User: Fold these one by one.
Assistant:
Number 1:
Amino acid sequence: MDEDVTWDDLINLPIDPPLKRDICLKCRRPIAVCYCKYLPSERLNPLCKIVLLQHPAEEKRCLHTATILSLSLKKEKCVVFTGKKFPQNRHTELPDILNSPNTLLLYPSLHAVDVQDLPKVDETSNFYYTLVIIDGTWAQAKTIYNKSTALHSLKQVKLSKRQGSEYIIRTQPTEGCLSTLETAAEALSILENKPFLKTDLLKPLAALCDYQISHGAVIHESKELRLKNHTYPKLIGKRLKKLLEKTCVEETDLNEIVQSHNEKYEKTKLFPMRSTFIT
Ligand SMILES: [Zn+2]
């Protein structure tokens, strides 16, 4: 037996087990729900750069909008760092990014500036923004922010044009909540004054939602809307109430709504069953 040949055979063995045949190798979704044909034919090259600080659990979600973002933008325009705290030793490029004066953190705190009010950038600008977005659920994003003191000194920005999410398959906590992809798309199109950035980036998401709806998925109204329509199927606990207080579009009658919802729930317990969420 020729030892060299055997050795060559061994090194050529794939390290990972082969992927199932019906999974798209690009978006890693089942072929039936692959969105790749809706991605931009050429990766988009905005002037600004997106940096995602991704919670490890987010990466595993089936319908993970950050993947659409990174497949749609040129590689150097969308950089992902994973962790529950930032920066860590392994995030070698991150400290420089966080120390740059043109780095913005998209985080809707009280003193965050509206993206709309920032100086716009174009091809003649001598500066471009780096937009840092925390990719996770609201609760995860808040914990990451609190643990990552390096983020506290960044200029904080928010999107105030609060349209409901088009990403209707995953339940958003409130009407103004957007997915990571929608947040990035909206911010980029405003900062560069290029509406096509938003439309091109959101095409795969729209296609995916259309597909899922036509195949029987429930349109997931936000919890805020379901509360107002009296269709939220559970008692409102302290955590959800706090979250709603922070992010509700109209905060004025929230206490009243929550109180009457919980009273009604206790009395009747006749709320509809929670639908199965597709995430
Ligand atoms: Zn695909």
Number 2:
Amino acid sequence: MFATLIKIRLHLQRNFCFLLQPYQIMTSVNLEAIFQSKIDDEVKIEPKDWMPDAYRKTLIRQISQHAHSEIVGMLPEGNWITRAPSLRRKLILLAKVQDEAGHGLYLYSAAETLGADRDELVQQLLTGKAKYSSIFNYPTLNWADIGAIGWLVDGAAITNQVMLTRTSYGPYARAMVRICKEESFHQRQGYELMMAMSFGSPEQKAMAQDALNRWWWPALMMFGPHDSESTHSDQASKWKIKRKSNDELRQNFVDVTVPQAEYLGLTVPDPDLRWNEERGHYDFGKINWDEFWNVVKGNGPCNRQRIQARTKAYEDGAWVREAAMAHAEKKEQRKLQPEAAVKAA
Ligand SMILES: [Fe+2]
Ligand SMILES: [Fe+2]
């Protein structure tokens, strides 16, 4: 009975609180309870809804890191657009890299709905205050790396991001639906390129194997530290920002990807990898977390290069931002004083 009364009260407060607001000051306990009950009932949190500060901060951090990863992720592959071996491959790669830029833009916009300032977020990236996915600090050494990135890096990204299409914050969840559709194309074009290389000449197959050797472990690191070491996991699960743990997602990725490597006739560079009949999953070897933290801290093979490239792009784009601002101001003025604007023109 008591529980039913609380439920009715929460329902009234959730749906009719706008009527009560001028007359009733809600305690933060009430607001938190309404917020959590919405999450428990799978109701999306929208930008104008009340939310705890920590939820807002966690989302701004996560969404902006995600946005930074998309735009830094354009760099290792963008590097190969001029060197793609055919027009078809060039078109595919160009489309993929453009998609990643678009993902960055959706995500910066989603972060703005939480009150974040885009320019501040970009400054955090350029000054090294904000992180991005450590995988993009590895170099692309041969053409098969483009296949390996699509297959493994975008493949790992999809494993993580499909879960995010159901995340509790509405604008983030909706952005992820479109992003996942495009990521699926990225993964397929990567695997198709790996097939062309693996079933090609012995030299091409050797390039494919070399790419797999270098990208396999960094791809497993993309899921982040083990659950026992992950600092943000519990709260993120309670708020349904995350719905699966790092280790669960990593295991899903290994289970799906190993048979794909077998089909290509390539060897996954892990001597401890074997099917565990009892668990119904692959067992795999230890991840080198020293390497992971070293790259996260800025000492990976390409960290400096990546930030330099982003800084140059930001500086080169200054005139576009200024022109867009001047155009927006002019438009605004015309709206306010149509006659004066006509005379001035
Ligand atoms: Fe992306
Ligand atoms: Fe992608």
